[in-house]
Amino acid sequence: MAQPTLPVIQALRATAQRLATQAPYQWGHMGSCNCGHLAQTVTRLTKAEIHARAMQRYGDWERQIVDYCPTSGLPIDQTIDEMLALGFTRADLTHLERLADPGIRAAIPFERRDALRHNQRDDVVLYLRTWADLLEHELLAGITLPSFNTPPMPTLVLAEAAPAA
């Protein structure tokens, strides 16, 4: 699973928020599908730019990820490079397109889990938010705060002031 880092969590939450607020969503479009929306967040490219990059090689996101080569020079591989550099894995991107990561699905409430559809906006938003929650929990679990248990301060005894003469 993706690295539990603040930039990864922010990318997932920003993508979910954009989708939840009615950004154009079309599962069959390389720039406005599940991976396409995450790519928009990570790369700051438009859906049209991502789609144009992807069309230079055959296949959907899953095929693009299988055929990914960091030295190809193809623009879609540069897009994937940016996503991987942020902390996502190739498996993450493959799972995202189909909402298929077993760990993320297991964390989704049971009543929604079996009805989850990879090409439904609300289901994608739920998946992204659940994924971000899991990574955030993992990130926070790895943070150790210093101990704030310090010995009590010694009690100061003030000397009585001598009476004024």
Helix coverage percent of residues? 55-70%
Q: Which word captures the global form?
A: elongated
Order of helices and strands: HHHHHHHHH
Strand content: under 5%
Taking all Cα atoms into account, the compactness measure Rg is 24 Å
Mean pLDDT: 90
Please count the beta strands (DSSP E, at least 2 residues each): 0
As residue ranges, the low-confidence spans are none
Number of helices: 9
What is the end-to-end distance?
79 Å
Largest sheet: none
Please give a quick description of this structure:
This protein has 165 residues and is mainly α.
Features:
single chain, 165 residues, mainly alpha
Task: Record the SSE blueprint.
Elements: H1 6-20, H2 34-43, H3 47-54, H4 61-67, H5 75-86, H6 90-98, H7 102-107, H8 110-113, H9 121-141
